From TrEMBL:
It holds the Pfam family FAD-oxidase_C. Its cofactor is FAD. One of its GO terms (molecular function) is oxidoreductase activity. This is Glycolate oxidase. Residues 37-216 form the FAD-binding PCMH-type domain. It comes from Cohnella lupini. Keywords: FAD, Flavoprotein, Oxidoreductase. InterPro entries: FAD-bd_oxidored_4_C (IPR004113), FAD-bd_PCMH (IPR016166), FAD-bd_PCMH-like_sf (IPR036318), FAD-bd_PCMH_sub2 (IPR016169), FAD-linked_Oxase-like_C (IPR016164), FAD-linked_OxidoTrans_Type4 (IPR051914), Oxid_FAD_bind_N (IPR006094), Vanillyl_alc_oxidase_C-sub2 (IPR016171). The keyword Oxidoreductase applies. Gene3D superfamilies: 3.30.465.10, 3.30.70.2740, Vanillyl-alcohol Oxidase, Chain A, domain 4 (1.10.45.10).
Length: 471
């Protein structure tokens, strides 16, 4: 229970109707996109501007009450579950595009804006903001920044971090800092902008962002390459890059994913394929034609069983949407869907997929895999039922082994979804004890009283590495 003097102060700051502690609001903000995690906050606050965020933080610091910043709660790592109670700060009211600067090709936004609304706006002005997480119709720019989200265009255009050049953020003590700016070059001290990108709400509340925009590509072409041989598909990915072709999109779906996506999107995909690559190139029409032709040749060389080039934009969008809906399609199979994002060097994609399949078999669980093949970023997705505790235990064991396998293959435990709560016990596997100490030091410098999203990134206990039985 919060001190009533504090709740009165919060109500004064944001206005009566923008502080809530009724049961409906508390339950609605007790969970996020991550299955099987729930914890009630003590209150929910909806600030309208940076000054209010600053006043809220000052009040919370005085009363030592934790705060979880929240965009749309679509994250998949338990990042917005208020495990230590306190306040959930919802950023949706701070959703204005403050400026699109046509001279500097930048946009300044409040971070509660929905990603797809922002990208549609800049596109209407003839500009392009490439980061495109599949959740972009619901996610916020603030959530994208705090998770450093990637998307289908990551291979060629990079991820959120490559487009954030300046930030305004409110510290745990309520002070407001500005980092970076409308600058393409800036080496004045430590790069706090990059440090805050991917900080998962644990270092500061990000209130405004200056985002880099680029000219849009003048044409695009999309194709599907279908393989009965998984290795053929994986070799195709490596060979495309080796041939110095960087497609805008290079996505992978395995057979179980192909089946559910086809059932969901009714595309008439061949269900006997082991893997499908969805490939898109963009740029000037000549380069696009040439690259698509060369990619087709590589696919043929690697014995693709079928290659379809989208006839028009409408058809291409349908294919892209189908891939974007892979998670939703899989979620229809069973009551609980657990999606992970183990990432390996792209040359190890086939090894990783085979390892995932072996691990799924070993633990007798259903795991479908899709993902950003060009980035080596795979999404092994378990379809299960949270009520079946014994099966859930096996799924957890399988994922632990999948993380271990990713690290063994030179990869990481998360490529784009963040550490949050669910991967915190595994973080040390990736960055080592010394790396953890440095991160703890950074956290301490920003947030000495551990009020910003406590319980995330830093686990109370690090999981012991399992010994993989290859028998
Ligand atoms: C169907 C589906 C598809 C997805 N596809 C992708 C994908 O392709 N690529 C990808 O990378 N992710 C994907 N995600 C995961 C998720 O959508 C992203 O992590 C997204 O960026 C989260 O945005 P959000 O606004 O929902 O943030 P939230 O879930 O609300 O918050 C995420 C984290 O950011 C922090 N945060 C939020 N706003 C702020 C702020 N203003 N200041 C400081 N911290 C803040 C929170 O505390 C939390 O730690 C997907 C999720 C779903 C459900």
């Amino acid at each position: 229970m919060l001190d009533t003097k504090l709740t009165q102060r919060l109500r004064q700051i944001v206005g009566e109707k923008f502080y809530r502690d009724d049961q409906e609001a508390l339950v609605a903000h007790s969970y996020d996109g991550t299955p099987m995690l729930q914890s009630l906050p003590d209150g929910v606050v909806y600030p309208a501007n940076t000054a209010q965020v600053s006043e809220i933080m000052k009040a919370l610091a005085e009363y030592r009450v934790p705060v979880v910043s929240r965009g749309s709660g679509s994250n998949l790592c338990g990042g917005t579950v208020p495990v230590e109670g306190g306040i959930v700060m919802v950023m949706h009211r701070m959703n204005r595009i403050l400026e699109v600067d046509m001279e500097n090709l930048t946009a300044t936004v409040q971070t509660g804006i929905i990603t797809a609304e922002f990208t549609a706006h800049v596109e209407s002005l003839g500009l392009f903001y490439p980061p495109d997480p599949s959740s972009m119709k619901i996610s916020t720019i603030g959530g994208n920044i705090a998770e450093c989200s990637g998307g289908l265009r990551g291979l060629k255009y990079g991820t959120t971090k490559d487009y954030v050049i300046g930030l305004e953020a409110v510290l745990a003590n309520g002070e407001i800092i500005r980092t970076g700016g409308k600058l393409m070059k800036d080496v004045a001290g430590y790069d706090l902008t990059k440090l805050l990108v991917g900080s998962e709400g644990t270092l500061a509340i990000i209130t405004e962002a200056i985002l880099k925009l680029v000219p849009p590509p003048s044409s695009k072409k999309t194709m599907l390459a279908m393989f009965k041989d998984l290795y053929g598909a994986a070799r195709t990915v490596s060979r495309i890059i080796e041939m110095k072709i960087i497609p805008a999109t290079l996505e992978f779906m395995d057979n179980p994913t192909i089946r559910v996506v086809d059932d969901f999107a009714k595309l008439g995909l061949p269900l006997d394929m082991e893997a499908i690559l969805l490939i898109e190139q963009d740029g000037d029409p000549e380069t696009v034609e040439r690259d698509i032709e060369r990619i087709r040749e590589i696919c043929e060389f690697e014995k693709a069983d079928r290659i379809d080039v989208a006839e028009n934009r409408e058809h291409a969008e349908k294919l892209l949407t189908a891939r974007r809906s892979a998670f939703t399609a899989l979620a229809r199979l069973k009551p609980t869907t657990i999606l992970e994002d183990a990432t390996v060097p792209r040359s190890r994609i086939a090894d990783m997929v085979l390892r995932i399949n072996d691990i799924a078999k070993k633990y007798d669980v259903s795991i479908a895999t899709f993902g950003h093949a060009g980035d080596g970023n795979l999404h092994p997705t378990a379809t299960t039922d949270a009520r079946d505790h014994e099966e859930i235990h096996r799924v957890e064991q399988a994922f632990e082994e999948i993380f271990e396998a990713a690290i063994e293959l030179g990869g990481t435990i998360t490529g784009e979804h963040g550490v949050g709560l669910v991967k915190a016990p595994f973080l040390e596997w990736k960055i080592g004890a010394a790396g953890m100490e440095v991160m703890r030091g950074i956290k301490q410098a920003f947030d000495p009283n551990n009020l910003l999203n406590p319980g995330k990134i830093f686990a109370k206990e690090t999981r012991k590495r399992v010994v993989i039985d290859r028998g």
